[in-house]
Amino acid sequence: MADRIVARVSISAQLMHVYKDGLLIHEWPVSTARPGKVTPTGQYTAQFLSRNHRSSRYNNAPMPYSIFYSGNYAIHGTDQISRLGRPASAGCVRLHPQNAAVLFEMARTEGLENTRVVIVR
């Protein structure tokens, strides 16, 4: 069964809705790209997981519970929790680390091939 997990990110609302088997189970604030940066829209299948990732592009910044879905773009935890709910990232989708851990474990358990990332304006 495909797409057991769907993480739907609304850039305009700065919210993620997480669905399991079609049922909404979580709604979380996110931070997407700040002005001058881009969070690409589209539908993606999760590509790989990295539990304790650090950015090779942005000063070794911590990216805990990373779910990479398109090249260097990932959903991951952030230490800038106060900025969630408004654009702040270089393009990734930032989550509260506790929420990122929940989503990471769901993707790990259900399988990357069953985890879909949908990003809309």
TrEMBL record:
This is L,D-transpeptidase catalytic domain. PROSITE patterns: LD_TPASE (PS52029). It comes from Roseicitreum antarcticum. GO terms for biological process: cell wall organization; peptidoglycan-protein cross-linking; regulation of cell shape. Keywords: Cell shape, Cell wall biogenesis/degradation, Peptidoglycan synthesis, Transferase. It comes from the Bacteria. The keyword Cell wall biogenesis/degradation applies. Pathway: Cell wall biogenesis; peptidoglycan biosynthesis. Belongs to the YkuD family.
